[in-house]
Amino acid sequence: MTRLHMPTGIALAGLLLLVAALPATALAQAQPLTLTMNAQNNSGISGTATFTDMGNGQTRVVIQATGAGAGPEPAHIHPGSCDQLDPTPAYTLSSVVNGSSTTNVDTSLQQLLDGHYAVHMHKSQDELTVYVACADIVQSANRPGALPNTGNLGDDWTGAVAIVAGLGLVGLGVGLRRRALRSPSSSS
To answer: Is 128 exposed, middle or buried (0-12, 13-18, 19+ CB in 10 A)?
Structure first.
């Protein structure tokens, strides 16, 4: 009976290692970052901008605004901050219509966080210099599950090595179990 327990234990340990080794980066990428857009120039317009890293250098930006009216209100990601920004947009977002906008931009969320950017809503296409709502793109310290930026997770091979090791242990356990089942039992 002990011959069967050891291979089964090895296989289970391998499966546990495999499950535990799922890259945390995949989980972190799926967690959206929601920022509060504050009213500017007494506009009465506020809301949220939610950033979701879609992988492959793409970030989805969803703006939900209240007090904006039917629109359209142009929206951009500008270099700088809400207090001091470069008027030339780094990324053009879909205009906010009926309080909502969704755009995929060609940059990762981490690149936006590592840079110095702000998301702005403008009063109208004719009045682009009038900002009506803004949020600085920064990592929120109060965000549940937020982890400190400790480097480029794309260069981390730990997860891949652990997965290969886990698969190896599972294979070893299955092989030992088959071998134990084929050999005659000495306790009979």
So the answer is: middle
The single residue listed with the structure tokens 């403008």 is: 122
pTM above 0.70, yes or no: no
Which residues, at least 6 apart from 92, have a Cβ–Cβ distance to it below 8 Å? 74, 76, 103
CA–CA dist 124, 19 (Å, integer): 50
Q: What is the dihedral of CA 103, 107, 110, 116, to 10 degrees?
A: -90
Please tell me the CATH superfamily of domain 32-136, with its number: Superoxide dismutase, copper/zinc binding domain (2.60.40.200)
In the chain, where are the structural domains located? 2-25+157-182, 32-136
pLDDT digits (tens, 9 = 90+) for 80-124: 998 888 889 999 999 999 989 999 999 888 888 888 999 989 888
Q: Are 129 and 75 in contact (CB under 8 A)?
A: no
